[in-house]
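Appendix B, record 7
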Amino acid sequence: MTAELQSIFQPELDPGERILWTGRPTPARLAIMKYGLPIAVLFFTCVWAIPSMIEEVSTGRPQSAAAIAVACALVIFFAGFSAAALGAWRTVYAVTDRRVLVVTPPGFLQLKTSALSYPPAMITQIQRSGDDQEGDLIFVKAHAPKNLHSGLSVVQPFQGLIGIAAVRRVERLIREELLGG
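Structure tokens (predicted):
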């Protein structure tokens, strides 16, 4: 493990806890998973607005509502996607002998470290997607993970490890080391 990863994970580890695996998400994949709704809004805004804009140009009657809607959707989308991508560049994953950790150090638009902890009791089922090269491990469970710093439950549209290399190997490690199977 690099010195950078050691410095990120060390404050989050309990005494005697050992790191078995570390990884990083594919930034674009994590950003897309996190900002799927803005992508859908952008798509439907464009489907509605582009024909209106073409009609405006062809008739010579400018009606700027469609253009403003598209411009606003684009700004919102690119701002959200950029923030998510920047956060994804800093996000790191770890499987320890006690839990799975997802840590995002402070950076652009984030003043404090975000650390999510998934102990074995919270991982009731794992859904794997992707191939041997890259994929996702989604944890299906009844409770949202707690942010280790704020103590608040974090509700996300997905919980798990997104865009990781060697996804089958990591799934096997979690099943064997944390879930006893």
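Remarks on this record: The chain has a mean pLDDT of 76. Residues 131 and 167 are 7 Å apart (CA to CA).
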